[in-house]
TrEMBL record:
Belongs to the ABC transporter superfamily. InterPro entries: AAA+_ATPase, ABC_transporter-like_ATP-bd, P-loop_NTPase. Keywords: ATP-binding, Nucleotide-binding, Transport. Residues 2-231 form the ABC transporter domain. This is ABC transporter. One of its GO terms (molecular function) is ATP binding. PROSITE patterns: ABC_TRANSPORTER_2.
């Protein structure tokens, strides 16, 4: 339903996105995850035809967004990061206006607006001015304007930004519902959001897609390279030096230090489990091990590993 082939967008000589390939099949919810400035908004604007790619090809339901712009755009509903809502219009008035712009046939406008207001639970506030609504309701209006012309594809840029936790839960529930009927691509820098909603995640960093997979599989990629958390009663420097020498331990970081004890976070070699050796080594030095836990990698670790230069370099060294 959404295809990007070798798409680049440069702003002058500045890279917005570089050589992106992405394919979202019908009915899927794909999350585009990346830190600030990674290129998420640029990707969204390219897909929706608001920006033209410098290079490459984008198609929506088979229509090229540049050559067949109108046909492609009819199939897209877009919720920008800051939706241009009109504060002085009523909810119903605004949605009617959008339905006309989006070329809903005249005879169907009223029904389309009623339907979408029902769907997003806006019927009770239909006469209210948008400017007087809470941020959560404004976001519902934003979603309503995106679906009023029943598009195949929904493009949602940071749909929960600026919402409180209760509103976030509500918006997520709505997006999950919408995902049953639409193909959705949403951008976010919030990991739990992406893991909770999306079947596929594309991680974008510095304009490039660095990984695409199911959230679970992404985490499994680096599983085995789990971290150990240990608290040891003993002198800081000696403990760190000794632990560093245990086979399978890659790096040691002190996370906390108290009177006579030290807490450590240990990176370990993929697939190895140095816990036993660690126990005997510390016992041999008469340093009681107060705590030892193993933490499997999660999506957050993958994200950090793929988007942090320092971590990336470290991973490179490990592989080498
Ligand atoms: N109109 C523009 N002119 C010049 N550079 C731009 C423009 N828009 C974006 N960029 C640059 O392109 C890169 C990608 O920006 P983009 O807004 O797509 O990132 P993002 O992932 O959406 O970030 P955020 O989460 O902060 O919104 C950044 O380096 C940004 O500075």
């Amino acid at each position: 339903m959404i295809e990007l082939e070798r798409v680049s967008k440069y702003y002058g000589n500045r890279v917005g996105v570089d050589d992106l390939n992405l394919s979202v099949p019908k009915g899927q919810i794909l999350g585009l995850l990346g830190p600030n400035g990674a290129g998420k908004t640029t990707t969204m604007r390219l897909i929706t035809g608001y920006l033209e790619p410098t290079k490459g090809k984008i198609t929506i339901a088979g229509y090229d967004v540049v050559e067949d712009g109108l046909k492609a755009r009819r199939r897209i509903g877009y919720l920008p990061e800051n939706p241009p809502v009109y504060p002085d219009m009523s909810v119903e008035g605004y949605l009617t206006f959008v339905a006309r712009i989006r070329e809903v046939p005249r005879s169907e406008v009223t029904q389309a607006v009623q339907h979408v207001m029902g769907r997003l639970e806006l019927t009770n506030v239909r006469k209210r001015l948008i400017g007087r609504l809470s941020k959560g309701y404004k976001q519902r209006v934003g979603l309503a304007q995106a679906i009023v012309h029943t598009p195949d594809v929904l493009v949602l840029d940071e749909p929960s930004s600026g919402l409180d936790p209760k509103q976030i839960t509500e918006i997520r529930e709505l997006i999950r519902e919408l995902g049953k009927e639409h193909t959705v691509i949403l951008s976010s820098h919030i990991l739990p959001e992406v893991s909770a909603l999306c079947e596929q995640v594309a991680i974008i960093n510095k304009g490039k897609i660095v990984a695409v997979d199911r959230p679970k599989s992404l985490a499994q990629h680096i599983q085995g390279s789990a971290t150990l958390k240990a608290t040891v009663k003993g002198p800081r420097e000696d403990v760190v030096r000794t632990v560093q020498q245990v086979e399978g331990v890659l790096a040691v970081k002190v996370t906390k230090e108290g009177e006579g004890y030290v807490s450590l976070s240990l990176d370990v070699v993929k697939g190895s489990d140095p816990r036993e050796e660690l126990f005997y080594t510390l016992a041999g030095r008469d340093w009681p091990l107060l705590e030892l836990t193993r933490q499997e990698a999660n999506l957050e670790d993958v994200f950090l590993q793929l988007t942090t230069e320092e971590a990336g370099a470290k991973e490179g060294q490990r592989r080498a």
